C-alpha cells in the first residue's frame, strides 16, 4: 500500500523551511586561557628547570632585594649574629693565648679588660661592632693581635651594615610601591570616537605628587601561527595610541582616557563584537614614569581579556569645575554608559561607511522617540492632576451656585404668583 501524500507540499514543510532559512555563523566557545599579566600587574609566569642557579649569587644585592620580607629579615638577623659570634670567638682566642682567662680575683696585664669567658667576649664583640661603649670592657695596648682583630671587626661590620641597611632601604623605597596609587579602569571599552572605532581605557593617579614623563604602551598578546607552521604561544604586538602619536609623554595631572584607533594596522581590525567575545587575546597596558619626590622610575601594569572589554560603551565624565577648582569624582572612575556603536568590525566599517550612518540615525530616532514618550507621559500626568483639581473645585463650589428661578402655575380661582427659590 502506498503512503498517502501530504496535502502540504514538501518544500513548504518544516524540514524544507528550516533548510532554506539563513543560518547565523556559529562561533566556538572561548577556551579559558591563563592571563599573562594579572589585574594587579604581577606576571603570571613560572620559571622551571633553571640549571644555572649560581647566576643569582653573582648579583647578591639584587637577589636580596627581590626576596620576600620574611627571608630578608632572617638573613639580616643571621648575618649580624654570625659576625658577632665569629669575632667573639676571635676575642676569646686572643684572651686565651695571652693568658687572660685567670681565675676570679687574679689580676694582671690583659689584652681586653674584664674578658674572662666566652660570654664576656661575646658582649665585647657586640660593643665593638655596634659602637656601644659601656665602659666595663676595653682594649689595652698589651696585644697587637687584639688591635688587629679590632680593625678587622670594624671594617667587616661597616660592610655588613652598608649592605643590609641598603637592602632594607631599597625594599622600602621600591618603585612598585608608588605604582599602588596608579589605577586603571576595571574594564576597557570600544566605541565610536571622531567617526572611528576606538579602543579606550582610563588611567589615573591618586597622589598629588606627579609622575614625570609618563608614557603608556599597549600590547596585544595572543597565540599565533606563522605561515610556516611555527606556533608562537605569546606573540606580543605593539598597539599605538593617540598620545604616543601626538607627544612623547603624558601630563598625568587628572585621569585620562587612553585611546587606540582601530585602523588597518591594528590587531583588532578584523574583530567584530561577537568575534571579540570568542577570541583569546589579551591587551596589556604598561604605564611608566619617574616619581617626582624620589626620582625613581616606576611602572604599573594591568591587562584586559575579552570578557573585560565592553563593546558599545563609553566612560562617563568625572572631572567637574566647582567654585573655581577642578574636582575629580573617583567613585565614577570605571563607570560606563551605553552608546550607539556598530557591532561589525572596523574593516566592515571602512568598506561600508553607511553602516555607521545608519547606526547613528537609528540612535537619534530612538532618542527622539524616548523624548516624545517622556514628554507625553509628563503631559498626561499634568492633565490628570489638572482634571482632578477641576473636579474637586466643581464639587466644592456646588453649594455656592446661584439658585435657579422656578415658575409655578396657579390653580383656578387664585391669583398668578411667581415663586422664587
From TrEMBL:
Places the protein is found: Membrane
Transmembrane segments: 71-94, 145-169
Site (Role in the control of polyamine-mediated channel gating and in the blocking by intracellular magnesium): 161
Segments of skewed composition (Polar residues): 408-421
Domain Inward rectifier potassium channel C-terminal: 182-352
Main localization, broad class: membrane
Similarity field: Belongs to the inward rectifier-type potassium channel (TC 1.A.2.1) family.
Record-given protein name: ATP-sensitive inward rectifier potassium channel 8
Naturally occurring in which organism (per UniProt): Xyrichtys novacula
Amino acid at each position: 500500500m502506498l503512503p498517502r501524500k501530504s496535502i502540504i507540499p514538501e518544500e513548504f514543510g518544516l524540514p524544507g523551511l528550516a533548510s532554506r532559512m539563513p543560518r547565523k555563523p556559529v562561533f566556538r566557545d572561548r577556551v579559558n586561557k591563563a592571563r599573562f599579566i594579572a589585574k594587579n600587574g604581577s606576571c603570571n609566569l613560572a620559571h622551571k628547570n633553571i640549571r644555572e642557579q649560581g647566576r643569582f649569587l653573582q648579583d647578591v644585592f639584587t637577589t636580596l632585594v627581590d626576596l620576600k620580607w620574611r627571608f630578608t629579615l632572617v638573613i639580616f638577623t643571621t648575618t649580624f649574629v654570625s659576625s658577632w659570634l665569629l669575632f667573639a670567638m676571635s676575642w676569646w682566642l686572643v684572651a686565651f693565648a695571652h693568658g687572660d682567662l685567670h681565675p676570679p680575683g687574679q689580676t694582671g696585664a690583659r689584652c681586653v679588660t674584664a674578658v674572662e669567658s666566652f660570654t664576656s667576649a661575646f658582649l665585647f664583640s657586640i660593643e665593638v661592632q655596634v659602637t656601644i661603649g659601656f665602659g666595663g670592657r676595653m682594649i689595652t695596648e698589651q696585644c697587637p693581635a687584639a688591635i688587629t682583630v679590632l680593625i678587622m671587626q670594624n671594617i667587616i661590620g661597616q660592610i655588613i651594615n652598608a649592605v643590609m641597611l641598603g637592602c632594607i632601604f631599597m625594599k622600602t623605597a621600591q618603585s612598585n610601591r608608588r605604582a599602588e596609587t596608579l589605577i586603571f579602569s576595571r574594564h576597557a571599552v570600544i566605541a565610536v570616537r571622531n567617526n572611528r572605532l576606538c579602543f579606550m581605557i582610563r588611567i589615573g593617579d591618586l597622589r598629588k605628587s606627579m609622575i614625570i614623563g609618563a608614557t603608556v604602551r599597549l600590547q596585544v598578546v595572543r597565540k599565533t601561527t606563522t605561515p610556516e607552521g611555527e606556533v608562537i604561544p605569546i606573540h606580543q604586538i605593539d598597539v599605538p595610541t593617540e598620545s604616543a602619536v601626538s607627544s612623547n609623554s603624558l601630563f598625568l595631572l587628572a585621569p585620562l582616557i587612553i585611546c587606540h584607533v582601530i585602523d588597518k594596522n591594528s590587531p583588532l581590525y578584523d574583530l567584530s563584537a561577537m568575534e571579540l567575545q570568542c577570541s583569546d587575546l589579551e591587551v596589556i597596558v604598561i604605564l611608566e614614569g619617574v616619581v617626582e619626590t624620589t626620582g625613581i622610575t616606576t611602572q604599573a601594569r594591568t591587562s584586559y581579556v575579552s570578557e573585560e572589554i565592553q563593546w558599545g560603551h563609553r566612560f562617563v565624565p568625572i572631572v567637574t569645575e566647582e567654585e573655581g577648582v577642578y574636582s575629580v569624582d573617583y567613585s565614577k572612575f570605571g563607570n560606563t554608559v551605553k552608546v550607539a556603536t556598530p557591532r561589525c568590525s572596523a574593516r566592515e566599517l571602512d568598506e561600508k561607511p553607511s553602516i555607521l550612518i545608519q547606526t547613528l540615525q537609528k540612535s537619534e530616532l530612538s532618542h527622539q522617540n524616548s523624548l516624545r514618550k517622556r514628554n507625553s507621559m509628563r503631559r498626561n500626568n499634568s492633565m490628570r492632576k489638572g482634571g482632578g483639581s477641576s473636579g474637586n473645585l466643581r464639587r466644592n463650589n456646588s453649594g455656592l451656585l446661584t439658585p435657579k428661578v422656578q415658575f409655578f402655575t396657579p390653580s383656578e380661582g387664585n391669583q398668578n404668583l411667581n415663586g422664587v427659590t
